[in-house]
Amino acid sequence: MKTIETKMKFENNQKYAQEADAQDPLKSFRSKFHIPQHKGKDCIYFTGNSLGLLPKNTEKAVLQELEDWRKMGVEGHMNAKNPWFYYHNFVSDSLAKIVGAKPTEVVAMNSLTVNLNLMMVSFYQPNGNRKRILVENNPFPSDYYAIEQQIKFHGHDPEECIIELKPGSDEHSLSTTSIIKSIEKYGDEIALVLIGGVNFYTGQFFDLEKITTAAHDAGAFVGFDLAHAIGNVPLALNNWGVDFAVWCTYKYLNSGPGSVGGAFVHERHGNNPELPRMSGWWGNDEESRFEFPKNFEPQTGAAGWQMSNAPVLSLAAHKAALEIFDEAGMQALREKSIQLTAYMEFILKDIWKRSGVSFTVITPKSPEERGCQLSILTGPDGKKIFEKLTAEGVVADWRNPNVIRVAPVPLYNTFEDIYNFGRIIESASN
Q1: Which terminus of the chain, N or C, has fewer Cβ atoms within 10 Å?
Q2: Helices and strands: H and E segment counts in the chain
Q3: Any bridge partners for residue 41, and if so which?
Q4: What is the pLDDT of residues 165-215, one digit of tens each?
Q5: Non-local CB neighbours of 255 within 8 Å, separated by 6+ positions
Q6: In which element (H, E) is residue 404 found?
């Protein structure tokens, strides 16, 4: 990763925050979203890492598909304004730009854990001594459940086959060096390295390029759960040589609760019809799909992993949200994200220095090792402080046993949001 520096000299006062917002080149994007209200005012919404806000263009996009359904019925598959038969293709270019891929390497389909299971059918191929899966410390529970069951499906014991990396006793994150050393240590025992691109709990952004190289040098496949990474941090999946990745779209991608998931399959695998996979008719070659051939002939690329019809209403919301990303651009979003998150860290440190509160940010300090999210390790009064924040209109996220997660999202959060959050948390901590 390139070293990132924050260029702004921060101040903990409202005038500074308002001036920073006035100079923000992305300031107009906030008006493209519906901001939840608290006592008649915009709340301070810091949970885009759990559910992104509703874009104002989503309703029109979904209503268009409902209108075509009303007017055309089944004929909408070919004659709708956005023909349903091809709908997953309408988001491929946008997704490819966000994850650093070719359009044929990405597909919007299913949901995250379904896609993870489908990818492991193809890329977890235990053979002899090479049957273990290496994961980061404290992966998201759904990932862990899928990994356990895939191992059991192959007749192996998860206790023996899962290598869960652990940070040092006085650390909260994993160094890239320690991850690579573990990959080298277990070398020919590893069938798959499977890591969350950004850890849901700590907010750590892993060095995916170096991890990929190390995994391949060890002879293993490598995949990433990008639920907390996509739309948040810069990605270059094709150039890095990642074998596969999966994600949801309802967090930073703002595509709605339970919205369609997505997957990436590198072109060297997407063009290999012999790779083991679960199959269904929507993954079949589009030219022959309605000829109902007896034998499965997968489409080229990630779309060949589709199994069922595209969920059009969900994809309509997804498509609308991605149009905003096309307009803003990931580079500009990343630049603002770095500044917002650094400002939040500055505000928290300033408050704690003056108040004597001994909380800890467990997200890595280096901007290149984190995205929007900061995870705050609290003391015994942490839950009470969280509840006070909620009562004052701050929408944050509590994770047991004692972590408050806050994620200032560059599309709709402001520097003044962060200043006001600091003022409220200082009051709540006293």
Answers
A1: C
A2: 15, 15
A3: 38
A4: 998 877 899 999 999 999 999 999 999 999 999 999 999 999 999 999 999
A5: 52, 249, 314, 317, 318, 321, 322
A6: strand 403-406
* DSSP conformation class of 136: -
CATH of the domain at 360: 3.90.1150.10
Task: Say how many CA atoms lie within 13 Å of 172 toward its Cβ.
Answer: 19
| Whether the Cβ atoms of residue 317 and residue 255 lie closer than 8 Å to each other | yes
Run of H or E residues at 269? helix 267-270
Q: Is the entire prediction scored with pTM above 0.90?
A: yes
Strand pairing class (394-395; 37-38): unpaired
Are 28 and 168 found together in one domain? no
Q: Residue 191: which CATH number?
A: 3.40.640.10
Instruction: Give the Cα separation of 248 and 226 in Å (integer).
Output: 8
Residues 409 and 425 in one domain: yes
Question: Same structural domain for residues 159 and 188?
Answer: yes
* Residue positions counted in the chain: 430
Residue 194 structure tokens: 């499977």
Q: Which of 346, 411, 399, 403 shows the shortest CA–CA distance to 372? A: 411
Summarised one tens digit per residue, pLDDT across range 142-165 is 999 999 999 999 999 999 999 999
**What residues are paired with 179 via a beta bridge?**
none
Please indicate, yes or no, whether residues 289 and 380 belong to a single structural domain of this protein.
no
Give the number of other CB atoms < 10 A from CB of residue 155.
8
Peptide bond preceding 364 in cis form (omega within 30 of 0):
no
Residues 351 and 303 occupy one common structural domain: no
Cβ distance 40 to 62 under 8 Å? no
Indicate if 24 and 85 belong to the same structural domain.
no
**Is 3 part of any domain?**
no
Helices (H), 169-240: 176-186, 208-217, 237-240
Residues 364 and 403 both lie in one domain = yes
Contact 389, 425 (CB under 8 A): yes
Q: How far is CA 195 from the centre of its chain?
A: 12
Print the domain residue range for 342.
Answer: 14-32+329-429
Residues near 23 by Cβ (< 8 Å), separated by ≥ 6?
none
Q: Are residues 291 and 241 in the same domain?
A: yes
- Terminal C-alpha separation, the chain: 39
